[in-house]
Amino acid sequence: MSKVKYYYDPDTLSYRKIERKKRRTVKYISLFLLASALFAFLFVFIASQYIESPREKGLRHELQNAQLQLELLNKKMDETEVVLANIAERDNNIYRLYFEANPIPEEQRKAGFGGINRYKDLEGFDNSKLIIETHKRLDQIQKQIVVQSKSLDEITKLAEEKEKLLTAIPAIQPVNNEDLTRMASGYGIRTDPFTKVRKMHWGMDFTAPRGTPVYASGDGVVERADNGAAGYGNHIRINHGYGYVSLYAHLYKYNVRKNQKVKRGDIIGFVGSTGRSEAPHLHYEIFKDDQRINPINFYYGSLSAEEFNKLLEHASLENQSLD
Ligand SMILES: [Zn+2]
Asked: What is the CA(146)–ligand 1 centre distance, in A?
């Protein structure tokens, strides 16, 4: 209850009540409210600096969790990098080596992205460093996967090539073992059947009855099938590509013509004794880059170890060739 104040009025000789002016009262109240509000605001402001609200607490936990998850993701990337490094090593040291491709250097596999700063948008936050690092590592892993994938594409192509090469190389005996009446005469110095002089015999002779089938020893294209080369009589040359050519001489008949494509094992002609030949036999030569090489090393496609040893034994006998 507010005090009622009086004053003495000399004119009426009596005490009179002091009437407070209404406007002044409103002013006091307003001032009081304003001061309270200011104080309350200051209090809340200062308190908020030191006391965490439940919402802030929640956010802080969430942030901590996000940070933890980022660190865990980085650990997972460590593991991924180890696996990728292992694949890259096998790629370089086994697959690429086997298919004669140059290894991909480490710098190329792990090359970063040059030029503009790709992570500019991620800068300016408290956790920028962690986030940028994570982005960088993932980008690098992604790039490594692309390089690896390309390398495997290349190897697939090389493997296909290698398969082609393997089917092209003359790799089987051109006459069946059961058709041979006598084992072969080999490549090397042999006695010439006509002059009885010892000279180089550039191929292998397989003795077999006239008309015995002769097989293409590898995939290729018939380069010639004629009797236009001195001494060889009716003969066939097959170009296998990759520098390999095989030659089949003294044939009785042909089964192919020039430019015909043949597969390994196709019957290309029949044993005969045309040209400079003493008796029916197949004279067989292999060329690599225009040089004649010993055919004995090229029967891995068809002979067993035992058969090969027998052939090797006979081929190395210093007997007389049939030319
Ligand atoms: Zn011969």
From this structure: 55
